Amino acid sequence: MFMNFKELGISENILNVLNKKGIKTPTPVQIESIPIITTGSDLISQAQTGTGKTLAFLLPIFEKIDTSKNCIQSLIITPTRELAIQITQEAERLQEGKDLGILSAYGGKDISSQIKKLKKDIHLVIATPGRLIDHLMRKSIDLSKVSTIVLDEADEMLFMGFKNDIESIMKFIPKKRQMLCFSATMDSAVKKLAYRYMKDPSVVSIKSEEVTLENIIQEVVETTDRNKQDDLCKVLEEDNAFMAIIFCRTKARVDKLDENLHQRGFNCAKIHSDIQQSKRERIMKSFRNAEIQYLIATDVAARGIDVTGVTHVYNYDIPETVESYIHRIGRCGRSGENGYTCLFVDPKNEKMLTEIENNIKLTIKRRTI
């Protein structure tokens, strides 16, 4: 068993960067994935957000890239702009002292500035499928020398309808390359996509849910659709959370709740895919800096957002799957800290609540307001 990053073959300059960030011990997904990636093998890795999977693929990629070659050598495809930004920030922090060209390509940002940057030496591209195809159609990006491709949040990519886009992109990637697929869930659709483009992949599965849930107090508020908003506000006033995420089922419900909470004087902001990218980035920066107390979000907008300091998660709308529930509440209680989550359930949600309780093997405590 590898106990530190040096044993995993991470070079001295990157070790120094990790030390500065206070990252000294590799997580299970890093311990299991990095040695496989280093050998050049294909990999399917099942791991939730917050388990350290970004570094699990970035570290070996950084070790592999040859900066003396002026070409794109690694490509990371991710479903959302937020996740692309987050991975880019992580990569830029890692590349301290290394002359490595990184391009983040996603919609909502001026494409001409990305085209201009592509004329310089770029070694690593982090992109969303739509914007990457845009570049490929314009012939502004050359993927013919890519030796490693990463599909991050592969399950979400398929859920959001990017299957055809992935297939189009793969036509521009050399046949001889390494492919890494990271996914929170490992259903048949993910396996089918992965195995179509992979050669004898190794499979790593990190079960982190039980560990994550140990630090989180879970409660349920039984309510009705008519009273739900008032009940949420009472809970928010009682808890006065330091930083919280409130999950809604749709963009329209995010908009409605955001308007209502603002009227009641709560310090909140909303995030979903219809909000202009530059504004979303400003909101996320403010939230990370704890200037915003409540972030109201859809599942898709919040996917991959890993913000330290979130103390509370409120499920205003019940999630559609058990995995989604675990994924949502895992936003708090990170790094051994305690978290609190509250799920608002009206009578029509009882079946889903039972499914959640059976899966996590816990009868969630009912909260009286």
TrEMBL record:
* Gene Ontology cellular-component annotations: cytosol
Q: Which residues form the Helicase ATP-binding domain?
A: 34-204
Where in the numbering of this chain does the DEAD-box RNA helicase Q domain appear? 3-31
Concerning SUPFAM superfamilies, the annotation shows: P-loop containing nucleoside triphosphate hydrolases
| Ranges that cross the membrane | none
Gene Ontology molecular-function annotations: ATP binding; hydrolase activity; nucleic acid binding; RNA helicase activity
Sequence motif Q motif, residues: 3-31
Keywords associated with the record: ATP-binding, Helicase, Hydrolase, Nucleotide-binding
Q: Which residues form the Helicase C-terminal domain?
A: 228-369
Tell me which PANTHER family the record gives.
ATP-DEPENDENT RNA HELICASE RHLE, ATP-DEPENDENT RNA HELICASE RHLE-RELATED
The family line of this record is:
Belongs to the DEAD box helicase family.
Protein name stated in the entry: Superfamily II DNA and RNA helicase
UniProt source species: Romboutsia lituseburensis DSM 797
